[in-house]
Amino acid sequence: MYFPSWLSQLYRGLSRPIRRTTQPIWGSLYRSLLQSSQRRIPEFSSFVVRTNTCGELRSSHLGQEVTLCGWIQYRRQNTFLVLRDFDGLVQVIIPQDESAASVKKILCEAPVESVVQVSGTVISRPAGQENPKMPTGEIEIKVKTAELLNACKKLPFEIKDFVKKTEALRLQYRYLDLRSFQMQYNLRLRSQMVMKMREYLCNLHGFVDIETPTLFKRTPGGAKEFLVPSREPGKFYSLPQSPQQFKQLLMVGGLDRYFQVARCYRDEGSRPDRQPEFTQIDIEMSFVDQTGIQSLIEGLLQYSWPNDKDPVVVPFPTMTFAEALATYGTDKPDTRFGMKIIDISDVFRNTEIGFLQDALSKPHGTVKAICIPEGAKYLKRKDIESIRKFAADHFNQEILPVFLNANRNWNSPVANFIMESQRLELIRLMETQEEDVVLLTAGEHNKACSLLGKLRLECADLLETRGVVLRDPTLFSFLWVVDFPLFLPKEENPRELESAHHPFTAPHPSDIHLLYTEPKKARSQHYDLVLNGNEIGGGSIRIHNAELQRYILATLLKEDVKMLSHLLQALDYGAPPHGGIALGLDRLICLVTGSPSIRDVIAFPKSFRGHDLMSNTPDSVPPEELKPYHIRVSKPTDSKAERAH
Ligand code: ASP
């Protein structure tokens, strides 16, 4: 058979492992990162003028003649100089004898952060002068020649991780910020995880890495897209919010298993965990079901996970959307700690407390609570006040704090109205201990849960600022959330429906009939992957039947099907059943590195307001450059001026 043989030949050739003879030399963090992820050290000094990296030299190199290139990290008393490159630091002795006066001049006069090349011999440090904190601390370089490759002017900030700088300054001089150890670590770890993901997907599981266009057209029913003008009057491209349509079309095209490290664009403004442009590990497979995708992703993360972190344990636990909302008040629960939401409606059926009575008299009324462990010890009166204010301002809900003091006497304004039997039942259901505080609210299920879900996280933050360790920083708690509703009421008009994931998501097989009777109740085959309370991925099994897709788009979502006629047509031409997922790479790396923001794991991120502070982007364009696009800018001030005329 012709086809399989060329295909298997291609794969055999591509996946043959590269054998290296270089002995790994451990020490610097970057090296251990490499060791942990690749189990072999690449050749760092091939094709370049240096013989070694600064960070790699050890006692085993004693007596070797080396050439190093790097940045001057600091200089001490014109006798020592510490040279830095991506691999680490090394101490260089500045020669003091007359014959080496020119070398001394170069090394003593070059400002810090200048780039120099030095050649010399690796010698051991005098006894007692070793630096055990430095991986290269047993040796130093006795310099023979030096060359100043480029002098550095006065810097806007010191290149030292411990020197605090504002984020705006870091972003303005990003190329300097990238010299920091932390940024180097983050970007290299990112590169290595992506490499391992490629290896897992392509070499171990036969995926094909395919690039899809970034100039495309609007996809209905999703995030806001960026527009790109074209030279045809009034016609625009859109930057895709994801390669969703293309990856499905690749399945129709028989590619079978696709993946891409895909750049995506959403015009939604930045937040700590969002960027207008971001990267997804985008995946699609034919003939797969939900469990197949879940196992693939569990294997992918396990395989690409850095070895210096606790290993990923699979399979990940699964929770339904309904359970997540009822227990954690959110579809992305942080399962590293308890403080779960408990329904205590039955305890208060005969209550005399007004707002509880009110809520329970309504058809969908409930009473819910969370227990803050040792809250009485750690929460201050003003914390409780701000919790109550938050509930009132954002949810129009009342919060009742119930304190238990050390001898279990009720210490709360409502104490008088809680009967002894209710008190005991509450303690039993909530498993409260002395010093705990119960936060209680009443109202419609979703609203009460959402509020308590927010308060759960707020209180966890508060307790942690007061020294309680609730969330182990070394713990990675993965969770699948499944059985989402297919549709949600639109925020701006709750009588209309919008897709909970996207309009290509297939309904749950047992709920298809509901599409024609009660679509709001239909569950979907959509799954999200959550890590430590952050959504790091989402996907679905897709609709591969054109008729069903058309019905959902046109009848239920009231979308213009003409915009998707190409996709609908493709589904009619023998589309295989298929499904996929996308992992948010920036968010994932941010969590793995423990960075405060996704901007810390992106080389050139946009600022909080979507600007590139280094190049001042977005920028204005002269009117003549806009002419070919048939665009004229009317600035807000212009139109005011026009109105004034
Ligand atoms: N394209 C989807 C997203 O970006 C992911 C998927 O359904 O595969 O959320």
UniProtKB/TrEMBL annotation:
Q: What is its EC number?
A: 6.1.1.12
- Give start and end of each Aminoacyl-transfer RNA synthetases class-II family profile domain: 187-618
User: What keywords appear on the UniProt entry?
Assistant: Aminoacyl-tRNA synthetase, ATP-binding, Ligase, Membrane, Mitochondrion, Nucleotide-binding, Phosphoprotein, Protein biosynthesis, Transit peptide
Instruction: Name any GO cellular component annotation.
Output: mitochondrial matrix
Can you name one GO molecular function term for this protein?
Answer: nucleic acid binding
Work out whether the entry's keyword set contains Ion transport: no
InterPro entries recorded for this chain? Answer: Aa-tRNA-synt_II (IPR004364), aa-tRNA-synth_II (IPR006195), aa-tRNA-synth_II/BPL/LPL (IPR045864), Asp-tRNA-ligase_1 (IPR004524), Asp-tRNA-ligase_1_N (IPR047089), Asp/Asn-tRNA-synth_IIb (IPR002312), AspRS_core (IPR047090), GAD-like_sf (IPR004115)
- What's a GO biological-process term for it? mitochondrial asparaginyl-tRNA aminoacylation
Q: Tell me the compartments it is located in.
A: Mitochondrion matrix; Mitochondrion membrane
Q: What is its main location?
A: mitochondrion
The reaction(s) catalysed by this protein are:
tRNA(Asp) + L-aspartate + ATP = L-aspartyl-tRNA(Asp) + AMP + diphosphate
Q: Which Pfam families match?
A: GAD, tRNA-synt_2, tRNA_anti-codon
Q: How does it assemble?
A: Homodimer.
Give the family per the record.
Belongs to the class-II aminoacyl-tRNA synthetase family. Type 1 subfamily.
Under the heading PANTHER family, the entry gives: ASPARTATE--TRNA LIGASE, MITOCHONDRIAL, ASPARTYL/LYSYL-TRNA SYNTHETASE
Q: HAMAP family recorded for this chain?
A: Asp_tRNA_synth_type1
Query: What protein is this chain from?
Result: Aspartate--tRNA ligase, mitochondrial
Question: Which lineage ranks, top first, belong to the organism behind this chain?
Answer: Eukaryota, Metazoa, Chordata, Craniata, Vertebrata
Gene name tied to this protein: DARS2
